[in-house]
Amino acid sequence: MSKTLIRGAQVLGGDVQDVLVDGETIAATGTGLPAGDATVIEAEGRILLPGLVDLHTHLREPGREDSETVLTGTRAAATGGFTSVFAMANTFPVADTAGVVEQVYRLGREHGYCDVQPIGAVTVGLEGRKLAELGAMHDSAAGVTVFSDDGKCVDDAVIMRRALEYVKAFGGVVAQHAQEPRLTEGAQMNEGTVSAELGLGGWPAVAEESIIARDVLLAEHVGSRLHICHLSTAGSVDIVRWAKSRGIDVTAEVTPHHLLLTDELVRSYNPVYKVNPPLRTERDVLALRQALADGTIDIVATDHAPHPHEDKDCEWAAAAMGMVGLETALSVVQQTMVETGLLDWAGVADRMSFAPARIGRATGHGRPVSAGEPANLTLVDPAYRGTVDPAGFASRSRNTPYEGRELPGRVTHTFLRGRATLMDGKLA
């Protein structure tokens, strides 16, 4: 079995230590560890984190391999420092049966540069009318624990209640795409001053907030776990904070792009900024950052949403919604949270590894960097500064809102159970 000695890294941004990886596990940590026959990585000035976990990724396979595949998506994940991703169910066919989730799971096992955990649909065909095979998907080889109709809201309160009741039996969680559909008909961007000036249909904050308010009450009534996908407004933060103060078992995520970008960018009419939920105001951005810092928002999740060139290089109204995000996520978090003093690197490890692994029950991930633990690790150079060039992305798609923007930090190495998937910034 191969051995690797990571020498002189700041573990979680704290003490400088050597970390010896032997096979699939961390064999030892400390100072002055002998290299012996191990490959040595000189890591002075770099941050060593547990492998990142993304609870919200769109891999598009099966059905939209022109956008992404399990192979290309997990290569992008490894480039961004992720060792585990949760693949959303809005594929073709929809991942609403044991057969489809097992297909995605097998593709991850056979071709993945990181672990792939399928997310099962809540309703058949994402149509919101009938519960999907929740128990069968959980009992399958994929062992599904997270269920979501992401891309669509489970807007029927009775269906949502039944889903929460069903998953409670085996400790699962329903991840809600909070969007009241009647309030967003024809919506193109955040409802506000900018939408009024541009003449684009507005997407009101209350469309998100009303669903979250309903669902936290349902979760309290049922006594089940609820997770809020891509929370994007200051009002949503207030509702989740209130729910947690009552002891309701709710968790929430924020995307990197909602931590950095605002609806002012839509003035360019560049469809790369078209996303669901839409980019919000500066006030919302600042509220989201503070909520992530104080723990009201539990995790960062990318909502990596790849699209082929023709689906974004068109007029705004016709463009698909979504942005790729796996390869830039950690850099955006460094800029918005670490360099602003809102989080330290231990906090980043919690929001991007420990907490998402805990919410999704990702066995072997989100573990301490200590002897005996699985060697799922990410090494970061925080001093790096570089301009984002999507031509060099590992993802099959290029729809990034950060093209030409300078971002800090770079993942130099990623290890999946001791095997290097990224070495010196290059895929292994």
UniProtKB/TrEMBL annotation:
Active-site residues, as the UniProt record annotates them: D303
Domain of life assignment: Bacteria
Name the record gives this protein: Dihydroorotase
EC number(s) given by UniProt: 3.5.2.3
Cofactor: Zn(2+)
UniProt source species: Streptomyces lichenis
Family: Belongs to the metallo-dependent hydrolases superfamily. DHOase family. Class I DHOase subfamily.
PANTHER family: ALLANTOINASE (PTHR43668:SF2)
NCBIfam families: PRK09357.1-1, pyrC_multi
Molecular function GO labels: dihydroorotase activity
Record field: catalytic activity: (S)-dihydroorotate + H2O = N-carbamoyl-L-aspartate + H(+)
Alphabetized UniProt keyword annotations: Hydrolase, Metal-binding, Pyrimidine biosynthesis, Zinc
Matching SUPFAM superfamilies: Composite domain of metallo-dependent hydrolases, Metallo-dependent hydrolases
Amino acids binding Zn(2+) 1: H56, H58, D150, D303
Signal peptide extent: none
Textual note on the cofactor: Binds 2 Zn(2+) ions per subunit.
CDD domains: DHOase_IIa
Keyword Hydrolase applies: yes
Amino-acid positions noted as binding Zn(2+) 2 in the UniProt annotation, renumbered to this chain: D150, H177, H230
Pathway the protein contributes to: Pyrimidine metabolism; UMP biosynthesis via de novo pathway; (S)-dihydroorotate from bicarbonate: step 3/3
UniProt: substrate binding residues: H58, L59, R60, N90, N276, H307
Keyword field contains Metal-binding: yes
Protein role: Catalyzes the reversible cyclization of carbamoyl aspartate to dihydroorotate.
PROSITE patterns: DIHYDROOROTASE_2 (PS00483)
